[in-house]
Amino acid sequence: MSQPAVVVENLGKRYKIGRPRPAGWTWRTALGAALRAPFARGRAPDKAEHDSEFIWALRDASFEVRPGEVVGVIGRNGSGKSTLLKILSRVVTPTTGRAVVAGRIGTLLEVGTGFHPELTGRENVYLNGAILGMKRHEVRRKFDEIVAFAETERFLDVPVKRYSSGMYVRLAFAVAAHLDPEVLIVDEVLAVGDAAFQKKCLAKIAASARSGRTILFVSHNMVAVRQLCRRALLLEQGRITQIGDVGPVIQSYCGTPVNPRATFARAQAPPIADECWVAEVWLEQNGHKVATVRNGTPVVLCLVVQAERDTALVFEVLIRDQDQRPVLWGPADMSPRAARELPGGRHAARLVLNLPPLVAGRYYLDVMLAEADRRFIDYVECAVALEVEAGLYATTEWTFCQSRGPAAVLLPIPQVTVEPLPVGVAAPPRQPESELLAHAQR
User: Fold this and answer.
1) pLDDT score recorded for residue 22
2) N or C: which end of the chain has fewer CB within 10 A?
3) How far apart are the C-alpha atoms of 279 and 313, rounded to whole Å?
């Protein structure tokens, strides 16, 4: 078995928080602190020191990356992602633990670092290439490729201070992307540039992955992480809380449960919905509760709604994929005149969902209640999960398109039935989907 390309053992980085100088601080105390600093560097933290004066940006991190593996590093801002990559890139030294990287390291941490505004684009290509560790003959050999990738041929002899921000970023990324390291470290470079350039950057990173390079990839774009990586690690407050296959790690990061609920229930109204609220949610097929449906078959979304007063109610459903991207939006009533009049009390609602052909996988259903003026009364996010099995249609995974609206596809709900639910009755009388669909078609 080959040796790991990256080995991290009990890695930690601590920073001192700036605070006002204490009373009596003089040049003598400053000189004494400066003389003591080299001897304190690298030692274990003193327990007598106040925790409030320091912050652990990274703590007790341990993992290995095999050669040729692409690992995603995800987490919220301030979780320690950039600190981890800077230690691996030897930009900063760790406080505890060790990190070993086998082979030449290429880093894309801060695109454009080292560019001089007074130098031309041509001169900055050579300067930045040298800063990133490229030899002059390497830069000369790849110069045409770099310029073509950046699309700045006409402006090579113009000082970069006259470049637009987009041109500046394109040229900087083009230089860094043409490194030939054994280990490539990428930190959120896809957050810059326009959509076309981001697509080109992603394709370049994917090509590096296919060539067998070991890649650590940091991004808040979960679609890109899922597309590029097989494994991922999740950082929270400087600690690695999960590492494994990319799917479950992304689900944990996005806030969706790895073991989702098939039914939803709550005994009392939430604080923001005291007029009308959803008490229960589940899915049915042929009169039975289900959590899995076959591709292309209809399903009934069942709700128990508690209304504290008479109201005109509109039902809406938003269906998300496993990456929390909106896929289908189902407004049961398309106009205020079609809102359902509900008297005060407990009611059972059944919404027929004629799902279009969906890719096999897991989906989450958000349930919304709104008044006739479209003001939301209650919103249950990820109320229930639905597993779609491969059926008569598509059986392979692909990426959904997403518009700027609530979802890419509008899903009209043809039939909604609402009836009073007596106290003590847990579920409404079931009606086969065939009768509901026949009534909807009439």
Assistant:
1) 63
2) N
3) 15
CATH number, domain with residue 302: 2.70.50.60
Mark whether 335 and 392 lie in a shared domain. yes
> Are residues 68 and 97 both part of a single domain?
yes
Element spanning 230, H or E: none
Q: For residue 63, give the nearest of 44, 87, 93 by alpha carbon.
A: 87
Residue 259 lies in a domain: no
Same domain as 167, residue 27: yes
Longest CA–CA separation in the chain, Å: 91
Task: Give buried/exposed letters for 395-427 (b at 16+ CB in 10 A, else e).
Answer: eeeeebeeeeeebebebebebbbbeebeeeeee
Structure tokens at 396: 């392979």
Contact at 8 Å (CB) between 268 and 300? no
Question: For every residue of 321-375, which 3-state class applies, written as one string?
Answer: CCCCCEEEEEECCCCHHHCEEECCEEEEEEEEECCCCCCCEEEEEEEEEEECCCC
Cα atoms found within 13 Å of the Cα of residue 404, Cβ hemisphere only: 0
If you ran DSSP here, which 8-state letter would residue 238 be given? T
Residue 211 lies in a domain: yes
The conformational region for residue 80 under phi > 0 = left, psi -120 to 50 = alpha, else beta, is left
Q: Domain boundary at 225, 254, 283, which? A: 254
Q: What percent of the chain has pLDDT over 70?
A: 77
Strand partners, 352: 300
Residue at 1 is within a domain: no
Rounded CA-CA distance 437/73 in Å is 47
Neighbouring-strand partners of residue 293:
388
- 371-401: pLDDT as tens digits: 776 677 888 888 899 988 876 544 444 444 3
Residue 377 covered by a domain: yes
> Considering the chain, what is the average pLDDT of its residues?
79
> Which among 75, 46, 57, 59 is positioned nearest to 17, based on CA atoms?
57
Q: Which two tokens stand for residue 421?
A: 């639910």
- What is the pTM assigned to this prediction? 0.61
Q: How many domains does the chain have?
A: 2
C-alpha–C-alpha distance, residues 393 and 46, integer Å = 63
Tokens of 388: 């779609």
